Amino acid sequence: MTRLTVTSNENETIAAGEQLAQEISKIKTDRSIIIFLEGELGAGKTTFTKGILKGFNYKELVKSPTYNIVEIYETDKYRVFHFDLYRISEPIELEEIGIEEYLKELKSVSIFEWPNNGKGTLPSADFNVQISYNGKDDIRELLIS
Ligand SMILES: Nc1ncnc2c1ncn2[C@@H]1O[C@H](COP(=O)(O)OP(=O)(O)OP(=O)(O)O)[C@@H](O)[C@H]1O
Ligand SMILES: [Mg+2]
Fold first, then answer.
1. Residue 90 CB–ligand 1 contact under 6 Å
2. Which of 19, 98, 130, 142 has the largest CB neighbor count within 10 A?
């Protein structure tokens, strides 16, 4: 099932992320739930992640993991790993950050920005979110499947 959501500001994208958090919560599994966020620089992937975390009732600061590659958040139901693979170019680099260990963690949600940089190493996603925009206004199209 695929759905299209159009947002016209940051808060609407956060609300879309919150909505996805509710759907994630309905998945009955203990294994790590995988979310791929695709879209160019500044599309709104980190903004959407803020929404997911808000939906999990996380109230503190959420920052872009660009420099650390992964940020970890403890929420009521899940431990959330937010990855930014922008600077990853070889599978060995994912091994080095201990990707296997993260993915093995029970009751967790792993969110990936730039998932294509982990192709061949990452498992397939439970939800794929493609965010597109025309580069000039605040309109974003979110294709969630
Ligand atoms: N409708 C919208 N949805 C999301 N963000 C929007 C929207 N309109 C404007 N923005 C702005 O666009 C920017 C999106 O930045 P964000 O860090 O979420 O992008 P990103 O996809 O994570 O980029 P990067 O690949 O660099 O990590 C923010 O500054 C946000 O305020
Ligand atoms: Mg980002």
1. no
2. 142
Looking at the predicted structure, is the pLDDT value of residue 103 above 90? yes
Q: Is the pLDDT of residue 91 over 90?
A: no
Which CATH number fits the domain that encloses residue 107?
3.40.50.300
Check pocket membership of 43 for ligand 1, CB cut-off 6 A.
yes
CA-closest candidate to residue 55, choices 30, 36, 80, 34: 80
The pTM for the full model equals 0.97
Strand-pair category, 3-7 with 70-74: unpaired
Averaged pLDDT for residues 76-99: 95
Burial of residue 54 (CB within 10 Å: 0-12, 13-18, 19+) is middle
For residue 63, the enclosing domain spans 3-144
Q: Name the closest-CA residue to atom 8, ligand 1.
A: 138
Shortest-distance Cα residue to atom 11 of ligand 1: 10
What domain count does the chain have? 1
